Amino acid sequence: MSYNILGSGYRPNITLFSFDSTSAKIHKVSDSKAPENASWLEPGKEGVFYSTSEVPKGEVFSLKLQGEELEITGKRSTKGEEPAHGAFDDVIQVGAKLTD
Questions:
Q1: Residue 23 lies in a domain
Q2: In which domain, by residue range, is 7 found?
Q3: Which terminal residue of the chain, N or C, has fewer Cβ atoms less than 10 Å from its own Cβ?
């Protein structure tokens, strides 16, 4: 059986890996442009993912896996600085430092 894994961090790319549990091998499939300082990647519904951008202006992004590429499909301000975590169910919750 094969599994897809998305890997990110403070890098310019989000990397898609494929892991084959039968052979216990992993290989890199693709690199896609990541939001700046993407510190959290959360799966949503229907192939959508959400990411916080841990930067002073504070942003949250939606992304969608299109074949082997992850595309940024939207972004919004968090109205706070450097969000480090997001919980994205029916209600979006983002932890950020609030500023004046």
A1: yes
A2: 2-82
A3: C
Q: Do you know the residue count of the chain?
A: 100
pTM confidence score: 0.75
pLDDT digits (tens, 9 = 90+) for 54-91: 888 888 889 999 999 999 999 988 877 766 655 555 54
Residue 67 is assigned to a structural domain of this protein: yes
Total structural domains in the chain?
Answer: 1
Residue 90, Cβ density class (10 Å: 0-12 exposed, 13-18 middle, ≥19 buried): exposed
Adjacency order of strands within the sheet including 59-66: 38-43, 48-53, 59-66, 69-77
Pick from 10, 26, 8, 21: which is nearest to 63 by CA? 8
